[in-house]
Design brief:
By secondary structure, the chain is mainly α. The protein contains seven helices and no strands.
Length: about 180
Amino acid sequence: MAIGQSYPVPGGRGQMRAADADRDRAVSFLATAYTEGRLGKDEYDARLESALSARTYADLDLIVTDLPGARVGPVPRRGPSPTNGLAIASLACGVAQFAFGPLPTIPAIVLGHMARHQIKRTGEQGAGMALAGLLLGWGAVALGAILIVLAFAAFVVSTSGHPAAIVQHAHLLPVVNPPQAPHAP
């Protein structure tokens, strides 16, 4: 609970409507005061009913103002969650492939998978960066595989049309014996 003054200015923050989370915090505060012996059972029940029906921060302040740490303020907002560092690294490695060739391909893939796992667990930002790093990495792997297959096909085609290549590789061909005619007695 925040400690401070109530809101005496008409139309000030004390007249702002309280949210369910604010009422829940006041109820939690009253329960703590009751368990510490600061409130009797009847007084706790009366204040609890008032807290659950309170509409403004000023109403909540009246319920808890005489207790230590009295003022009920709004629920603090959290700032935006940070961007996952592995996602940034994955994207950087994926883009670096254009400058350094296939060297950063594997780090882009590994870091992308690790980042996506961490983002699911921690709720950090950067899912799109991790996905982009993964796509760039796997795209480079697919392109590399296609280029290897095309190079092999070009090699096979280039060597298969030359008679010298056929004679040169004849030892690799299986030996087939032609059928022989049966001998007459």
